[in-house]
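Structure tokens please, single chain.
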Amino acid sequence: DQAIELRPLPDQDRPADFSGAVGRFEFDGMEIPTQWRTGEPQRVALRIKGKGNFAVMNAPALAPEPLWKIYPGQDQFTPGDQASFSGSKIFQYNALPRQAGSHQAGFSLSYFDPELARYQTIKSPTRTITVEGSDLPPEEAKTTASPTPDPAPPPAPADTPAPPHHTAGNPHPLLPLTEQPAFPWWLAAASALFLAGPLSATYQKLRTNPERLARAAAARATNRAIRQAKHCAASSNITGFFEAARLALQHQLARKWRQTPQAITLADVQLRLPADSPVTAFFREADRISYGTATTPESLPAWQELLMTALYSLSSPTAS
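Here you go.
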């Protein structure tokens, strides 16, 4: 047996954005679009390499923080050794600018360096971005409005004599019920009520069918991702196009394979789809772009056509 000394992380000089990363890290690449519009989110990406506990590292915030609204994204870790103590991690998420103008955007990360026994904060290179549009109002905390008092009841009417009561006699007192003039109407009303119950239950069952709801949700998410891909292609945002297009394919595959969309990787696609599938080709190119492989905007039309082919192949009833 050996004695091990465990030391708590110091509270003194702890940065506000410290999320638990311990080791030594550095920025190894980033992707920030240069053209933005207030209220419209776009995808940003960065890669961090080094040695330490990558598992508890949160995505570095985009600075300056008051300028942005950040949405949850996804990350991917590539180990550099068997113990996964060294390697690199890619973070991708959507950010929405609040203020128009020209700004310097970048990332920062705080971690604890055990060799130096103190906290370190590293900053990525900044990029000049242009944000068009009108400034968004600051977000305010929602307050609970005081309940509106009920209106006072109207005054009671003055006493008035009740109208005389007349008893209407039955014009056919001795006829059987089936021969009464209103009997066909009563029968029709009873039949309608009898059928209304099963029809209502069938409609409710179809409306809340989990499979139908899943298909509708996947279709909406796919359409959103396709619109984002078209927007990125129009602005020659190559990284944004491939990320949005891959997400559209992930939503379609997730419905068929009953998985979380972001959990579907190139390895899953290669395992379950043919090697010459357009879906496999698109995932392979999207991974190359994520790892910094350059491509030209002139090739985007061909990739857009391949995306449509891949989506069509997934809509086929025989697609696995």
